[in-house]
Amino acid sequence: LKESKRAVNSLRDIVDDDDDDLERVSWSGEPVGSISWSIKETASSSTSSLEGRDSSLQKGSSSYAAFPKQVSSYSLSSLFKGRNKLPSFQSLSDALSDTGVKNYAPELRRPKAEYKDYSSDWSPKDTVRRMQRGKVCSLERFRSLQDKLVLLDEAVAGHDGNVITAVLIFLKRTLRREILFRELEVRQVALCHLIHFLKETGEQKLLLDLLRFLDRTEEVALSQYREHLNIQDVEKRREFLKGCIGLPFSAEDTSHIQDHYTLLERQIIIEANDRHLETAGQSEIFRKYPRKASILNMPLVTTLFYSCFYHYTEAEGTFSSPTNLKKTFKIPDKQYVLTALAARAKLRAWDDVDALFTTKNWLGYTKKKAPIGFHRVVEILQRNNAPVQVLQEYVRLVEDVETRLNLATKYKCHDVVIETYRDLKDRIQLTAYKCKVERGSAEEEKINSILNN
Amino acid sequence: CPFPQAIVWDEYLTGPFGLIAQYSLLKEHEVEKMFTLKPGRLPQADVKNIIFFVRPKLELMDVITDNVLREDRGRSPQRDFHILFVPRRSLLCEQWLKEQGVLGSFIHREQYSLDLIPFDGDLLSMESESAFKECYLESDQTSLYHAAKGLMTLQALYGTIPQIFGKGECARHVANMMIRMKREFPGSQNSIFPVFDTLLLLDRNIDLLTPLATQLTYEGLIDEIYGIQNTYVKLPPEKFAPKKQGEGGKDLPTEPKKLQLNSAEELYAEIRDKNFNAVGSVLSKKAKIISAAFEERHHAKTVGEIKQFVSQLPHMQAARSSLANHTSIAELIKDITTSEDFFDNLTVEQEFMSGIDTDKVNNYIEDCIAQKHPLIKILRLVCLQSVCNSGLKQKVLDHYKREILQTYGYEHILTLNNLEKAGLLKPQTSGRNNYPTIRKTLRLWMDDVNEQNPNDISYVYSGYAPLSIRLAQLLARPGWRSIEEVLKMLPGPHFEERQQLPTGLQKKRQHGENRVTLVFFLGGVTYAEIAALRFLSQMEDGGTEYVIATTKLINGTSWIKSLMEKLEPAPF
Q1: Which of B299, B321, B338 delimits the end of a domain?
Q2: Transmembrane residues, as ranges (chain A) (predicted)?
């Protein structure tokens, strides 16, 4: 790659950089004259400048051939010449200029062909076929249930969702709900289309009725739960979620929905409390680190981070304390330690970090333990710009020797490197490391003294 | 001109339309102005007709309604509204407009059936972004209907395709529709000599694995990292700053650099389908050739020689700028592929695909969740693990679900549900894992992969041979009969249909002449799969050339995104 880069750069000197004629492409890369280029162009410029453009467009017509060269010996591009797009454009603009005429003669407004659709007697099959071709057909003359169902079956057999949906709209309007549901139950394809279309148009009530009729309880539950996304007001959203808890979700999902409700309930309390604290200006932490956003509707882990950041020392009894959150939502140890570590490291509260990994056994001895592995601890601390003194304390705790050496070298924890080589009795590496530490420093002295022993 | 027009574009459509028409063409048809569809009042324009070019989507209908309602009634002359649905007129949308009370404002409502759009010499796409979701989540087969219609058009132009093979539920539907359409329009029997020998219809859901893995071809990586839209890619501008003398970096561009990528560009055609690890050497080789060519000028002595050199200059300059662009792109990609995280991610993917540790909670995935990597990345990995294990153990699945919901928000329960419905993320129900059998029989994992001079399609994923393409390869030789057992393990039926040709049109193949197979991917195809098919086309003794059609060009990210529940309420 470097080689070709060099070559390219050297070529720049050789060639006069006059390739503007070659690339008829504006900086944004849209070929001049392409549709998206022109949208910007016409939207901003007046007609006169467009005329100016015209000449350049003509010049650029050589680049017009948008068709690429073929890869295989077969060329679709030549094949596609037969498939000219022009005629349909032509007919479109014809149609449109026609409309102008019609507008001046309003009584001719409906074209004859279309008019015919309303009067003639198409069979269900023909009706469906006409609709597939995009023609407007009146369905009103299908009066009996029998006729309507034949029509629906024909539409389904055609597989064209647009037509199926159109027929369903008609049936929905003209059939009693129970009958519609009953007939759709034995017509799965049509049923799927109706469900999809009710979802799209947001006819929630009818959708839920239908799903209940079909006994699809889990879908009812999810579909109802989805509604909460449309509720902006948090109090209302909380109330709504409360109502969702009793819905027939799967066992696993039920607990998630319950958690979702509890979380929002907590967030509302915390938010009210903290907003008050912040505006009062009494609390140092809020003065020093003003909140960037409200905690409402944030994920659980984000909430935990927030509470480790602002409410770390609170007693377990308060809703905003990290330990309370951990207990309520059964947050696994690993997740908790990671989040707390990130929050406390961000505040540079190294004592808290230390406490997080210190355990006391029954004899009163302290021991360092990390459920996430100390190499991860080091990474997180490093990301939060922890000083070397702090960092090396945890690098030292990394069990795997090779990882420890790597991390120590990477983050310049000289002491750890030196001690590790000492323990390994690796004179060669230790000697080599001497050139990495500063001359005359304490580290160099340390190496020398070890080597001399 | 008496009736000037303005077009209001659904922005999504400008890309595909840009591939088939230029503004100059529209201008010949009296299109004066073009705007992007957005809510609010339509811009001033002295035109008689306003035409909306839109996809049949309800949210777009709301925007149009807003436009129409805000139109100044008092202005004169009054402007007329028309609506053009692409690819199909939708009665649901019209109903919607009617309920908003604006349907009557539209004098014409038409459709422009744009079924298959040519993307390259051997590639067609319907660019229907929701096709997979509609087919597998909502059981809406409209896109299949369009696919069948597109195939009928293709046959009208290039002759009836005598043999149809297929695998999957949707493939079966499309074949049925084609047969039915042919029966219903007996006049469609044409007398064109058939170009294609075989049509192969493949459901995306018989191979859910391939799009989830990171593509490792040059084009595939460009798509994974920057996303290719309608053959265009937008790149960070820094590496493309013009280095002309005297400009000393004073106005560095801030807008992304947009480039078109297709095989019309000689260099791109050569490298697009290569494994990324083989791209660097091609670029440096090209650089040497071009340098040498420019050096020629020193040897040009006579006027004739100089003239010849000058005549080659434009071509050489084009080659040079092409080389410069791709060198920059390759550098951008290399920065990413050499990153630690890319490597870790790839390692886990490859472990899953080769069947290692697919049945327990993966450490790397857990770490990524803890560090809150983008949700789509997590979903891709978890789904990949699920697919490579024929579903996850209930305990493992529950664990992942819990971690995802706690970290990214409970509302994602809706997305997880969609993935489950689509079969991407599911509990192992049968208690048996079929994937190892499928992997071994179809040789999906190749340990000795040659990235520089590949001898097998597995080079596109540096070890994994895409299942879909293996099926195409085995169909050509020795035929599917040899893999009946595995075919039964994949969802949906497999079938063969024949379409009778009039005696005069039956192909008499010359010795050594290749067969041509059209492979249609229902639900999307990735660039790496396309690369693998092109590789098969170019194999000396392959005997088959492939042309590719699809509902949409996808990658794992765009695909998963299409299945995610929209969590933001629509902005209007």
Answers
A1: B338
A2: none
Per-residue pLDDT, averaged over B409-429, amounts to 94
Sheet with B257-260: strands ordered across:
B228-229, B232-235, B257-260
Examine the domain organization and report whether A316 and A396 are in the same domain.
Answer: no
Q: Which residues of B touch A96 (CB under 8 A)?
A: 3, 5, 49, 51, 82, 108
Residue with the larger pLDDT of the pair A365 and A383? A383
**CA A132 – CA A155 distance, rounded (Å):** 9
Query: How far A289 CA sits from the closest chain B CA (Å)?
Result: 22
In 3D space, the residue among B117, B158, B146, B126 whose CA is nearest the CA of residue B20 turns out to be: B117
Inter-chain residue contact B9 with A169, CB threshold 8 Å: no
Q: With 50 as the cut, is the pLDDT of residue A16 above it?
A: no
Q: Is residue B550 within a helix (H) or strand (E), and if so which, with residue range?
A: strand B544-550
Report the chain A residue with the minimal C-alpha distance to residue B570: A230
Chain B: closest CA distance from residue A72 (Å)? 7
Residue A98 is predicted with a pLDDT of 36
Residue-wise pLDDT for A256-284, tens only, equals 999 999 999 999 999 999 999 988 888 88
Instruction: Please tell me which residue of chain B has the smallest CA distance to A11.
Output: B291
Last residue of a domain, one of A157, A183, A215: A215
Residues of A (406-435) whose Cβ lies below 8 Å from B: none
Clarify whether residues A280 and A337 are in a common domain. no
Q: What is the ipTM of this complex?
A: 0.84
- Beta carbons within 8 Å of B224's beta carbon, 6+ residues apart: B214, B215, B555, B556, B557
The count of domains in chain A is 4
Q: Specify if B410 maps to a domain.
A: no
DSSP string, B58-85: HHHHHHHHHHHHHS-TT-SSPPEEEEEE
A5 and B CB contact within 8 Å: yes
pTM over 0.90: no
Separation between Cα atoms, residue A386 and residue B156, nearest integer Å:
70
Q: How do B232-235 and B228-229 pair as beta strands? A: antiparallel
Position A93 scores a pLDDT of: 37
Whether A241 and A326 map to the same domain: the answer is: yes
CA atoms within 13 A on the CB side of A434: 15
User: Nearest residue on chain B to A98, judged by CA atoms?
Assistant: B3
B320 touches chain A (CB under 8 A): yes
Inter-chain CB proximity A228 and B401 less than 8 Å? no
Asked if A171 is an interface residue toward chain B (Cβ–Cβ < 8 A), one would say: no
Measured at the CA of B346, the angle between CA B341 and CA B352, to 5 degrees, comes to 130
State pLDDT tens for residues B261-285: 989 899 999 999 999 999 999 999 9
Q: How confident is the model at residue A243 (pLDDT cuts 50, 70, 90)?
A: very high
**What is the average pLDDT score of chain A?**
77
What band does A104 get if pLDDT is binned at 50, 70 and 90? very low
The residue with greater pLDDT, A150 or A58, is A150
Provide the chain B residues 91-120 that lie in CB contact (below 8 A) with chain A: 91-92, 95-96, 107-108, 110-113, 118, 120
d(CA A233, CA A242): 14
What are the beta bridge partners of residue B82?
B51, B108
Among A11, A158, A55, smallest CA distance to B319 is for A11
Do A68 and B120 count as a contact with CB atoms less than 8 A apart?
A: yes
Flag whether A56 is in a domain. Answer: no
Mutate to test the interface with B, among A162, A252, A303 (most CBs of B within 10 A): A162
Which residues in chain B have Cβ-Cβ distances shorter than 8 Å to A219?
none
Last residue within a domain, chosen from B81, B114, B147: B114
Domain with B551, as residue range(s), is 118-211+453-558
CB spacing of A300 vs B407 below 8 angstroms: yes
Q: Which two tokens stand for residue A421?
A: 């080589």
